[in-house]
Amino acid sequence: MRLTLEEIAKIAGVSKATVSRVINDVPSGVGEETRKHVQSVLSELHYSNDSFMHSMRSKSLALILPDITNPFFADIARAVTRKAITENYVVILVETEFSEEKEQEYISKLISKKVDGIILVPSGRACTDAHFLPEKYHVPMVLLDRKLDGAHSYAGIYSDNEYVAFGCCERLIKSGAREIVFISGPLNVSTSTERMDGYKDALIHYEIPFDHRKVRIGNYTVESGYQAILELEKENISYSAVLAANDLMALGALRALKEFSYKIPEEKQIIGFDNIDFSKYCEPSLSTVQQPSIQMGSQAVETLLKLIGGKKVSQTIRLQPKILYRQTTK
Ligand code: RIB
Predict the structure, then answer these.
(1) What is the SS3 string spanning 87-123?
(2) Does position 46 have pLDDT exceeding 90, yes or no?
(3) Contact at 8 Å (CB) between 237 and 227?
(4) Residue 157 and residue 321: Cα distance in Å, rounded?
């Protein structure tokens, strides 16, 4: 027997109008807590009504990441899924493996799967036709961590990479280092170039000549950090400190420095970026930058849900990372 609105209202302890608004998924006129309470009463009563069932369906968000083996992105994925599920959204996680082609393919596929929104961590910074499909098909998309050139219509949540890279370099300079190496991530990624800008700004500020031989381009992997040190040593480049654009490269560099029997931090200092778990437990423990990963992921979901609800959002949200000094710096 199907309950009347009046009976449901009595059970839920709300007005008939409120029950009607929830059943018909009317976005206004019902507080979030009341909506969730009435929805759970309707679920317990096994109430079925097309628009209600639509409002209760597990809605889905897509999270597109470049590399799920990188602990930084694992932290981001956890922050996004934890926030999304509190709003009854499930998260479809896809990995592009740094491929811009895969990224474009996934955007198109996810739109055809009718996801309610997309959070994209770009694998590159070039904006292609595929990146405008969400706008064309009215699927809200938010950029996270990395920028897309020319994608002005998408809101983005980022770390203040340039500012904090300047701070890392400044600390090394104030500790007496003047020959500082920068190990960059891929140059087609905005976080790499922003961190390099911070490094260059610090050299200019402290009147240290820029030496291109002290910049090595990695790919945000352990191996590329390790190889960067091998190259510097092979070319007899003089340096007393290393700033790596992420922890994985810093861990690779640290391994190479120890193989050359350098005393750390007395002879060589090193700072990474991301504060992944390994950075705290490696020997010596790595100085690094604590990215606001939880806040970034949570803020990305909040921003996307506002867009899904047709609300206005601020175009760019810039969050402040924090430098953590451990045993690899003086
Ligand atoms: O570790 C991967 C890096 O790329 C992180 O620092 C993150 O900012 C991403 O852009």
Answers:
(1) CCEEEEEEECCCCHHHHHHHHHHHHHCCCCEEEECCC
(2) no
(3) no
(4) 13
3-state secondary structure of 86: coil
Could you read off the pLDDT of 124-181 as tens digits, one per residue?
999 999 999 999 999 999 999 999 998 888 999 999 999 999 999 999 999 999 999 9
Q: Choose one of 246, 248, 323 to mutate for the ligand 1 pocket test, by most ligand atoms within 8 angstroms of C-beta.
A: 246
Q: Which two tokens stand for residue 62?
A: 């897509």
**Strands of 89-95's sheet, edge to edge?**
89-95, 59-65, 117-120, 141-144, 155-159, 316-319
Q: Is the CB of 166 under 6 A from ligand 1?
A: no
Q: Does the beta carbon of 18 lie inside 6 Å of ligand 1? A: no
CA atoms of 99 and 13, how far apart (whole Å): 53
Q: Is the CB of 67 under 6 A from ligand 1?
A: no
Ligand 1 atom nearest 276 alpha carbon: 1
d(CA 169, CA 88): 43
Look up the pTM and report it. 0.83
> Cα of 87 to ligand 1 centre, how many Å?
27
Whole-angstrom distance, CA of residue 235 vs CA of residue 131: 41
CA 243 to ligand 1 centroid distance, Å = 14
